Amino acid sequence: METKPDIKLLISNAGVVKRGNFDEAGLKGQLDMCDLNVKGATAVTHLCLPYMKKGSIIMETCSVSAFAPNPHLNVYSATKAYLKSFCIGLRQELKSRGINVCAVHLGWMNTEMNAGARNTRHTDVSNFLPEVNVKKLASRSLAAARKGRASYTQGAFYKFYHLLAKNLPHTLVVKFSAM
Ligand SMILES: NC(=O)c1ccc[n+]([C@@H]2O[C@H](COP(=O)([O-])OP(=O)(O)OC[C@H]3O[C@@H](n4cnc5c(N)ncnc54)[C@H](OP(=O)(O)O)[C@@H]3O)[C@@H](O)[C@H]2O)c1
User: Fold this and answer.
1) Which residue has its alpha carbon closest to ligand 1 atom 17?
2) Is residue 56 part of a domain?
3) CATH of the domain at 139
4) Which 8-state DSSP code applies to residue 101?
5) Cα dist. 179→49, 72, 77, 113 in Å?
6) Residue 68: inside a domain, yes or no?
7) Cα separations (Å) of 103 from 30, 32, 49, 145, 171?
8) Of 4, 34, 54, 174, which sits 20 to 30 A from 164 (CA to CA)?
9) Atom 23 of ligand 1, residue of closest alpha carbon
10) Boundaries of domain holding 52
11) Could you tell me the distance, in angstroms and rounded to a whole number, from the CA of residue 24 to the centre of ligand 1?
12) How many domains, in total, are found in the chain?
C-alpha cells in the first residue's frame, strides 16, 4: 500500500456458501468457496496486519458451522473450521503486539446468502434454526472483540450447540446435523 493506513478494526466478512452433497455440488463452486472463505480471509488479514498496532482488532466472520462437520454443507463447514483454528492461533501470536483476534460465530441470518435456502431438500435442519438478530450481533460482537474476547456466539441455542460440539464426538454430532 502506498499510503500507510492506521487500521484499528478489520472485519474480514466476505464469504459464500455452496450447499449440496459433495459429489453432486459442482467442483468449481466449491473450489471458489475455498478461495474466498479461506484464501481470501487469510490474504486480507495478512495484507492488513502490517498497518495494525497495539489496540487494533481483527474480527473474522466464522460460523456455527465451524463447531462440527455439517453434511450437505461439508466444504463450507470446513472452510469455517479453518478460520476458527486460524483465529485461535493468530490471537496467540498477536498477544504480544496488543492486537486482539475475535472469531465471530454466526448462526442463521436472513441475508442474501440464504435466500430461498429454507425448505429445500438439504436444509431440513436449518428450517428449525433460530434467526440471528443482525443489529444485536453487530454491536455485541464488536463489544466482545473490544473486551479482548477470543470468540463471540450469539444466542442460547447456538451457545448450547457449541457446548455439545466441544464435548461430544463429532462422529455423533454429525448424525444430528445430517438430519
Ligand atoms: N447468513 C448466514 O446465515 C451466515 C451464517 C454463518 C456465517 N455467515 C457468514 O457471514 C458472512 C457474510 O455473509 P452474509 O450472510 O451477510 O451473506 P451475503 O449477504 O451474501 O454477503 C456476502 C458478502 O461476501 C462478499 N463477497 C461475495 N463474494 C465475494 C468475492 N468473490 N470477493 C469479495 N467479496 C465477496 C459480498 O460482497 P458483495 O456484496 O460486494 O458481493 C458480501 O459482502 C460470510 O462470511 C458468511 O459465510 C453467514
Assistant:
1) 113
2) yes
3) 3.40.50.720
4) E
5) 41, 10, 16, 21
6) yes
7) 23, 22, 16, 9, 24
8) 34
9) 14
10) 9-177
11) 23
12) 1
* Domain membership flag for residue 109: yes
Active-site entry in 51, 76, 82, 158: 76
Q: H or E element: which one contains 63?
A: none
Q: pTM to 2 decimals? A: 0.94
Pocket of ligand 1 (CB under 6 A): 13-17, 36, 61, 63, 106, 108-109, 111-114
Q: Choose one of 113, 152, 153 to mutate for the ligand 1 pocket test, by most ligand atoms within 8 angstroms of C-beta.
A: 113
Is there a contact between 141 and 158 (Cβ–Cβ < 8 Å)? no
What pLDDT tens digit does each residue of the chain (179 aa) get?
678 899 999 999 999 999 999 999 999 999 999 999 999 999 999 999 999 999 999 999 999 999 999 999 999 999 999 999 999 999 999 999 999 999 999 999 999 988 877 766 555 667 788 999 999 999 999 999 999 999 999 999 999 999 999 999 999 999 987 66
How far apart are alpha carbons 165 and 161 in whole angstroms? 6
Clarify whether 76 is annotated catalytic. Answer: yes
